Task: structure prediction
Amino acid sequence: MTGALALAQVMAHCGGSPAAATSFIARAVAADPRDPEPYSALEHLWRELPAEVTAVVGAANTMGPMLARAYLSFVDGDMDEAAMSLGAVTGYQPDVPWASAPWIGDE
Result:
């Protein structure tokens, strides 16, 4: 587990800040979009604290929460929103291999 994911767990459970936890997880995703662990952590956090995490990604206007919104939209079956959010992230950082994310090819 990366340091960012460990901090996310602390923030989600002991620190009481799903927004900060989501940010730390998004940083872990951005560090290596191919690593499935941060996506799993994000989905787990969303399932555990759905209202809190949905509020964070629903108000997304920076890269981290937009990235989280892309993945969680995919998990929720909203492919249009997933594509739009991932497109915004890709436009902001086109040099990062976002399409290498493990969930991109999932059905």
Notes: Residues 89 and 99 are 11 Å apart (CA to CA). The mean pLDDT is 82.
